[in-house]
Amino acid sequence: MTDIHTRDIARLMSGMLWLGRRLRRERPEESVPLTMIGIMGTLYRFGPMPAARLAAHELLQPQSLTRTIAALEQRRYIARQPNPADRREIILSLTPHGLRALSADMEKRREWLADAMTHALTQEERNRLLACEDIFAKLAWYEKNDPSRTEQPL
After folding, report:
1. SS3 sequence, the chain?
2. pTM, to two decimals
3. Out of 1.10.10.10, 1.20.1060.10, 3.40.50.150, 3.40.30.10, which CATH number does the structure's domain 22-141 have?
4. What is residue 145's predicted lDDT score, i.e. its pLDDT?
């Protein structure tokens, strides 16, 4: 049993869900779909990788990515190249066009969040919130069947 009260968990979840909704609302109208943004963001943060590794980062089955990868490639946001070490494996990478689309999508949300933090929070609250980034990541990657796994797979 846990010492965390259900009401506290509900309040925390509510706050995170509302913030997530608000950040999605702040996206530019002409934005790329969020599933594509997630994939592009992963390729930006971790660099080129095979589809199976990308699926692990996105917590998806490789088959689930097939259409999205094809759509990203069609829009010229990603490129496929054979792995020089194993030519049977295809490596996916973010293109300069994809980086511009990702940056445009993220910039508007960054601006809103910075403005909201500046005007709605005290300096102490901003510091506390910024100190939680690693805690949010640990929660996001926790697996009940592998409690030691608290980091995004590489």
Report:
1. CCCCCHHHHHHHHHHHHHHHHHHHHCCCCCCCCHHHHHHHHHHHHHCCEEHHHHHHHCCCCHHHHHHHHHHHHHCCCEEEEECCCCCCCEEEEECHHHHHHHHHHHHHHHHHHHHHHHHHCCHHHHHHHHCCHHHHHHHHHCECCECCCCCCCC
2. 0.76
3. 1.10.10.10
4. 66
